[in-house]
Amino acid sequence: NTKISYQHQLTQAGITAPITTEITHAPVFYYAEEKHQQYLAKNPHGYCGLGGLNVRFN
Question: Do 55 and 9 contact (CB within 8 A), yes or no?
Fold first, then answer.
């Protein structure tokens, strides 16, 4: 189960809050403009005050 697997990774990283978002199959995906690609790599601290969790979903 994807949710259980990712929740385990979050817990290992010290993030103990449960995942409350439903994870479902995505519809057709459209890439954003280039300036939005790899956002956190280009803006490690973000511009909106939200940064990454340093937990990667593989």
Answer: yes
Residues 13 and 7 sit within 8 Å (Cβ to Cβ): no
The values of phi and psi at residue 46, to 5°, are 70, 165
Domain hosting 16: range is: 2-42
Reported pTM: 0.46
Q: In this structure, is residue 28 part of a structural domain?
A: yes
Residue type (1 letter), 38: Q
Which of 24, 25, 27, 8 lies closest to 16, judged by CA?
A: 8
- CA separation for the pair 23, 12 (Å, rounded): 20
Pure H helices in the chain: 2-12, 39-42
- pLDDT of residue 28 exceeding 80: yes
